[in-house]
Write a structure and sequence with these properties.
Elements lengths: L3 E4 L3 H12 L6 E3 L12 E2 L8 H4 L4 E4 L4 H13 L7 E2 L4 E2 L10 E2 L4 E2 L4 E2 L4 E2 L4 E2 L4 E2 L4 E2 L4 E2 L4 E2 L4 E2 L4 E2 L4 E2 L4 E2 L4 E2 L8 E3 L4 E2 L1
Parallel strand pairs: 1-2, 1-4, 2-3, 5-7, 6-8, 7-10, 8-11, 9-12, 10-13, 11-14, 12-15, 13-16, 14-17, 15-18, 16-19, 17-20, 19-21
Antiparallel strand pairs: 21-22
Bound molecules: coenzyme A.
Length: 205
């Protein structure tokens, strides 16, 4: 089985390893600015990916941009794909996914997530543990849907949006690029790009 190398090795990466293992794929190596201390998985530290020589880049083929921050994840994805590396979607087998949904590169789908029919997920998204994306929704590239968040039908999410744990988004709502929705927020109205929303009902801060 081919090895998937992790680019970024913080808390988010460690959670991703369990998805990779559940898919019966291998993960042996990681890149990061610094070596992890007390690495639970005893992976091999390959240094900072920016230090790779061209010949060394050719020795890796599959990777995952394993960084929780949306903007940084997007940058790492663009950099490594420019080297010819591929980032197959990582989907935990306990996720319940409509037969009509396909995941593009660098998406990660965590345990217990539900993705209904007619949903579009763009590249680089994180659908965290037990999040629900209801019918007709769209999640723009490099967004992160937090654990237990519920997006009702036809919710349209822009790029690099963060939706916190347990947030609920009413049906048909549009959320602009880079918006941040706090944990537990109930979103009843459209959200503009770059807005930060918290509370019930959700208000801008
Ligand atoms: C919304 C959020 C991003 C704001 O972070 P921040 O900009 O650093 O804001 P602060 O922590 O300084 O909080 C500012 C104010 O908003 C309140 N607040 C922050 N998050 C809130 C939330 N989710 N719900 C209600 N109130 C919240 C704080 O109590 C504080 O109130 P105060 O000014 O009266 O003291 C953050 O609190 C949050 O909810 N993050 C999501 C966490 C999460 O879901 N993680 C999952 C990762 S997988």
């Amino acid at each position: 089985m081919e090895n998937i190398v992790l680019v970024g090795y913080g808390g988010h990466a460690i959670a991703l390893i369990e998805i990779i293992i559940s898919m019966k794929k291998d993960v042996f190596d990681y890149f990061d600015k610094k070596k992890s201390v007390n690495d639970l998985y005893s992976l091999i530290y390959r240094g900072d990916e920016d230090g790779l020589q061209d010949a060394e880049k050719a020795t890796f083929r599959l990777f995952h941009p394993s960084i929780g921050n949306n903007n940084q994840r997007s940058k790492v994805y663009l950099k490594c794909t420019a080297w010819g590396w591929k980032a197959p979607a990582l989907v935990h087998p306990t996720a319940i996914v409509s037969s009509k949904v396909e995941f593009p590169e660098a998406v990660s789908v965590f345990p217990g997530t539900i993705v209904e029919t007619g949903v579009t997920i763009e590249k680089g998204c994180i659908l965290n543990n037990r999040s629900v994306i209801s019918h007709g929704g769209r999640i723009g590239s490099f967004s992160h849907i937090g654990p237990g968040a519920i997006l009702c039908g036809d919710v349209q999410v822009g790029s690099q949006v963060f939706i916190g744990a347990g947030a609920i988004i009413k049906e048909g709502i549009t959320i602009g690029d880079r918006a941040i929705i706090g944990a537990g927020t109930i979103v009843l109205n459209n959200v503009l790009p770059d807005q930060k929303i918290i509370g019930n009902p959700g208000k801008t801060i």
